[in-house]
Structure formats: C-alpha cells, structure tokens
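Before going further, learn to read the protein records used in this course. The integers have meaning only within a learned vocabulary of local backbone shapes. To see the layout at work, look at the sequence and tokens printed below.
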Amino acid sequence: MRSSGLVVTFLALVFLVSLSTAHVDPHLLLLPGQGNGEGVAGEKPWACCDMCLCTMSFPPQCRCTDELIGGCHPNCKNCHCTRTFPPKCYCRDIIYEDCGERCHP
C-alpha cells in the first residue's frame, strides 16, 4: 500500500515539473483572425501552395512546404533558406485555415 502512494506522489511530481518547464509558443494560441496576416481575416504568407501540411486540430494549423528559388513571398514573416546557390526557401509561417489555391492544378 505504501509503494502505491509513493508511485502516485512520484507521478504527481513529474507532472508538476513538466508543467513548469513546458515551453508554449504564444503564436500558436491565436484564434482565427487574431494574427497579423496569419488568420482567416488576414492575407496568406504565400500566393499559392502545392504542398500544404495541416494538423487535424480545429481550427487547422497549416503551413506551405513548397520550395521557392531565391526567396519567399513578401508576406512571409519566417522565411527559411538553404545555403546553396541558388537558395531554396520555404515559409515557416503557420496559418489557421487551408493554404489556399494550388500553384499547379
């Protein structure tokens, strides 16, 4: 009986430590339309997208994984480029709706 009490205490302690060390990205807590260009009401950070990845959450959190040569769309706030020449870039912005129209039907 005493060992089960120790296990429960240990699990509660692990839970509390995990809560205190958890990192929460404040940008992921926005509702649609609350972000600057990232919500339903804002402009998308890309003109079109062929490879859209979305979570199964509601609302969905989506990002476009298309690689662009030379740079991202001007609306993209978090552009990641390779160190190759020419650089291949993709936008890491997350929006809370579908990525929009496809570039190539």
